[in-house]
């Protein structure tokens, strides 16, 4: 399975600023996703990162708040913009192949605290 | 994607089998059942998946009922390191949607 490197692993940021999280995969992958996990909660899918086109966002998430880039098949970034304390969460990158018979691999996550 | 229902928590004695149930009564014919687990402060870890047949790997076994409306994940000899949140996910399209999961506590 693919190996994911996610950076930074954690950060403490001031409200009103932005943070860009990087997800690097050791092999080309078809599907890349970004999730948020708020404290004590399950994972919520933010968006599907599409190579060469705009990301597909889930209900409740918008591009202005969570801009995503995916310039190639091994790399993606998620930016958390204009942060508030409510954005304090773990953000996770996930990758996988097409079709329902493929498992997805998850990165170790970025633990973000907004103060 | 079909919704899944899992008990919020379960306890298991160390060395015994842990049987984690999942209900997915609205599953459709081409949707797979996936199981992941998340140990505290780590990303979710893939365990096993299946369509209609029972599956076994080095981590666990997956038993899917004949009507596919429910399944059970079996950890044959639970250890303290198996304490985690276990997620049962029905996947039809190309994304995983997580429910609340089951907190499994393995106790010595």
Secondary structure layout:
The complex is a heterodimer of chains A (115) and B (108).
Chain A: E1 4-7, E2 10-13, E3 19-25, E4 31-37, E5 43-49, E6 56-57, E7 68-72, E8 75-80, E9 89-96, E10 105-106, E11 110-114
Parallel strand pairs in A: 2-11
Antiparallel strand pairs in A: 1-3, 3-8, 4-5, 4-9, 5-6, 7-8, 9-10, 9-11
Chain B: E1 9-13, E2 18-23, E3 32-38, E4 45-50, E5 55-56, E6 61-64, E7 70-75, E8 84-91, E9 102-107
Parallel strand pairs in B: 1-9
Antiparallel strand pairs in B: 2-7, 3-4, 3-8, 5-6, 6-7, 8-9
Give short descriptive properties of this protein.
heterodimer, A: 115 residues, mainly beta, seven-stranded mixed β-sheet, four-stranded antiparallel β-sheet, 11 strands, 0% helix, B: 108 residues, five-stranded mixed β-sheet, globular
Task: Give a verbal description of the structure.
The complex is a heterodimer of chains A (115) and B (108). Chain A has strands at residues 4-7, 10-13, 19-25, 31-37, 43-49, 56-57, 68-72, 75-80, 89-96, 105-106, 110-114. Chain A is mainly β. In chain A, the strands form two sheets. In chain A, strands 2, 4, 5, 6, 9, 10 and 11 form a seven-stranded mixed beta sheet that branches. Chain A is globular and about 40 Å long. By secondary structure, chain B is mainly beta. In chain B, the strands form two sheets. Chain B has a five-stranded mixed beta sheet with strand order 1-9-8-3-4, with no helix packed on it.
Share of residues in strands of chain A: over 45%
What is the 3D form of chain A?
Answer: globular
Low-confidence stretches of chain A: none
**What is the oligomer described by this structure?**
heterodimer
Summarize the structure.
The complex is a heterodimer of chains A (115) and B (108). Chain A has strands spanning 4-7, 10-13, 19-25, 31-37, 43-49, 56-57, 68-72, 75-80, 89-96, 105-106, 110-114.
């Amino acid at each position: 399975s693919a190996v994911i490197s996610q950076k930074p692993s954690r950060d403490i940021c001031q409200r009103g600023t932005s943070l860009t999280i990087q997800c690097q995969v050791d092999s080309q992958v078809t599907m890349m996703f970004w999730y948020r996990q708020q404290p004590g909660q399950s994972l919520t899918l933010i968006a599907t990162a599409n190579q060469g086109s705009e990301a597909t966002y889930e209900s409740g998430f918008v591009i202005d708040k969570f801009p995503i880039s995916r310039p190639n098949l091994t790399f993606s970034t998620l930016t958390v913009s204009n942060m508030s304390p409510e954005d304090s969460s773990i953000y996770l990158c996930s990758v996988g192949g097409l079709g329902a018979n493929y498992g997805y691999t998850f990165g170790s996550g970025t633990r973000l605290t907004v103060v | 994607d079909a919704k899944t229902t899992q008990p919020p928590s379960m306890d298991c004695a160390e060395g015994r089998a842990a049987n984690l149930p999942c209900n997915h009564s609205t599953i459709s014919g081409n949707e797979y059942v996936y199981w992941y687990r998340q140990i505290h402060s780590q990303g979710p870890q893939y365990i096993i998946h299946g369509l209609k047949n029972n599956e076994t790997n080095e981590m666990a076994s997956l038993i899917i009922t004949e009507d596919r409306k429910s399944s059970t994940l079996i950890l044959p000899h639970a250890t303290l390191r198996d304490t985690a949140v276990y997620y049962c996910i029905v996947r039809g399209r190309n994304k995983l949607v997580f429910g609340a999961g089951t907190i499994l506590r393995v106790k010595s």
